[in-house]
Amino acid sequence: MKNIGILGSGRVATVLANKLAGAGHAITIGTRDPARAADRWPGARVELRDPAETARRAAVVVNATPGETSVERLGALRDELKGKILIDVSNATVRGQDGLPGSLLYPNGSVAERLQGALPETAVVKTLNTMLFTVMADPTSLRVRPTAFLSGNDEGAKAVVGRLLGDLGWPADWIEDLGDIATARGPEAVVLLVASVLRKRGLAPFALALAR
Q1: d(CA 108, CA 151)
Q2: Burial class (CB in 10 A: 0-12, 13-18, 19+), 177
Q3: DSSP 129-143
Q4: 43 has a pLDDT exceeding 70
Q5: Radius of gyration (Cα) for the chain, nearest Å?
Q6: What is the DSSP letter of 179?
Q7: Given 45, 72, 97, 210, which is the most exposed site by the fewest CB atoms within 10 A?
Q8: Is 26 exposed, middle or buried (0-12, 13-18, 19+ CB in 10 A)?
Q9: pTM of the predicted model as reported, rounded to 2 decimal places
Q10: Which of 12, 48, 18, 14 minimizes the C-alpha distance to 33?
Q11: 11: buried, middle or exposed (CB in 10 Å: 19+, 13-18, 0-12)?
């Protein structure tokens, strides 16, 4: 069991928190409005705290905040995140007029790289950003097996994240370690496909799959 903090309280946070709590982990949700977020978790499976306290008490922290504001938000928690593993599942985009991803916010980099630069004493690992949020905790729901990509500089941190992916339902051979944090640029660029997929199929579950 690990103490896992999840920064954010939206759909991504809800899916991940419920599955990881069901696997036996102690989950704390970091939100700026704990009272409002409590409606998502009527039971006692998770605790609700402010972001700083959530980061401080966790061994592993998940960034489920909007990618457009992640660097600013988490950069302010540099001391609280020191020595921790940070799992980044976000995508940073400039929104189009319809509210869907229009272009990359960091076209010559990635939000994961920006987070690692802002948090030099935190082990950032990128994963789970190439799929609809429901698939993150239910990969076997798709007819074709999806791929969960990993990017990060710290091999030990990636090993921990790989085990947590297993708790989310990901078999080990569905996980593809791409290399260091710079390799997050590829998976993050996949978000440019999302707007077209969502316009055609709506919120039907989908994910990127590496055919081998």
Answers
A1: 16
A2: middle
A3: -SB-HHHHT-GGGSS
A4: no
A5: 16
A6: E
A7: 97
A8: middle
A9: 0.96
A10: 48
A11: middle
Q: Which residues contact 200 (CB under 8 A, 6 or more apart)?
A: none
Sequence ranges of the domains in the chain:
3-201
In the CATH scheme, what is the code of domain 3-201?
A: 3.40.50.720
Identify whether the C-beta of residue 122 lies closer than 8 Å to the C-beta of residue 154.
no
Pinpoint the alpha helices (H) of the chain. 11-22, 34-37, 51-57, 67-75, 78-81, 111-118, 133-136, 155-167, 185-189, 191-201
Tell me the CA distances in angstroms from 110 to 10, 60, 82, 188, one per residue in order.
Answer: 22, 21, 21, 7
Strands 26-30 and 46-49: parallel
Amino acid at 60: V
**Of 137, 67, 148, residue with least CA distance to 109:** 67
The 10s digit of each residue's pLDDT in 97-155 is: 888 899 999 999 999 999 999 999 999 999 999 999 999 999 999 999 999 999 999 99
